[in-house]
Structures are given as C-alpha cells and as structure tokens.
Amino acid sequence: MDGNESVSAPSDRDGAAEDASSAVDTCYFMELPGELRNRIYRFVLLQPEDIPVTSSGYERPSVLATSKTIRSEGLKIFYLENAFSIFVHNFDCTEIYRFSQQVKRFKLKVSEEESDVNIHFWTNWAQPNWPNLLLWLKRYHARQLDSWPAHPMLAESASVEDHGEYGVVASMAVVADMLRTKQKWSVVENILKAQHPSLLAYNDGWAEDEDEEEDEGDQDQS
C-alpha cells in the first residue's frame, strides 16, 4: 500500500528507526502549535476502517518512520484513535501477542474486556487446538496477554455447543488469572489440563495434536 510501512514484529521499527534527516526535526512542521500538528497527524494517520492485524503484520503510515520526534508524537494517536481487528484461527494467539507487545511500549492495554486500543477479536471456535489454547493461557498467566479467546457470539457463526466450550475456556482463564502470583505455570498447567476432558465432551477436535504428542512420547520412551 502506497505511503504505508508494514509492521511485522515488535522489534521492527518502534524504537530502532533512525532519523531520515537531521533537518526533519527542525523543519517548519515541528514549529507549528501542538494542536495544529495533532490535527495534521489525525488527517494522515487515521483510517476509515479497521486495520487488519494478520500473521504478516499490519500497515502503518510511513510518515511515522520519518523521524523519532514524529514517530513519538504520532504513534499514540495511531494506536489510540484507529480501530484494529484480529481474526484468530486454530486458537493461535501469535498475532494478538505481537500486537500487544508493540502497544505495551506506550503503556497501553489490549484486551477484549478492557482495552486502551479499539481492537476487535474474533476467535474461530470451529478450529479447536488444545496445545495452542494452553500456550495462550500460559501467556495470559504470565501477563504477556491481557485477554483470552473471544466469546463465540463474536464469531461469524456459533452453535449452542460453542457456549459450553467457552464456559470451560473462560473458567480455565479465571484460574490462570487467580493463580498468577500464587503458583508457577507448571502447577497451573496441570490444573488446567484437568479441564481437557470437559472440552472433549463438547468437541473431539480438542484432541487434535494431543494424541500425536502422546505417540511421540511413547516412541521416545521405547
């Protein structure tokens, strides 16, 4: 997209880009009153539709890479006043994790329940993945993420069974949250694994990859 840069990982440009020119910081733009600069930032940075966050990253106006000063002033407007959307497949929280790490640099929270950033989550509950769910909850327990999988009602299609699955996952997330400061992850993980049969009762897709891991473990022991 013309005039945009692609942001693909937390380490990509948020603190490493250098000034394109020493003259930029002393240009007339920086001499304008702050209120006028903010109006210009909003005209350039704000998008009319949600900005999709995918496995390849998301688009960010290239003006933010012009100089450190412009980036510092403009990034909060970009994150606070735009809307973003993430569609989670296979319960893979990678995109949410990367995006969260980026905005946390500005002391902003990304969460479905309480968020500084206008972010819309969709979780495809038709693609259950037990190992990915555990990784998601591990990051939630470690405060690397501020949210758990979105409620099925936010998905394009939902069945009655989805509500039961969400109840199990939500209870697992509550446990991970309550034990953040009381128990290390290895203990919490064993507690959460006790809920695995409940998910299997709703959808045997939650067994996917689990049997393969057990087979690999048996082979290692043989």
Automatic annotation (TrEMBL):
<feature type="region of interest" description="Disordered">
    <location>
        <begin position="203"/>
        <end position="222"/>
    </location>
</feature>
<protein>
    <recommendedName>
        <fullName>F-box domain-containing protein</fullName>
    </recommendedName>
</protein>
<feature type="compositionally biased region" description="Acidic residues">
    <location>
        <begin position="206"/>
        <end position="222"/>
    </location>
</feature>
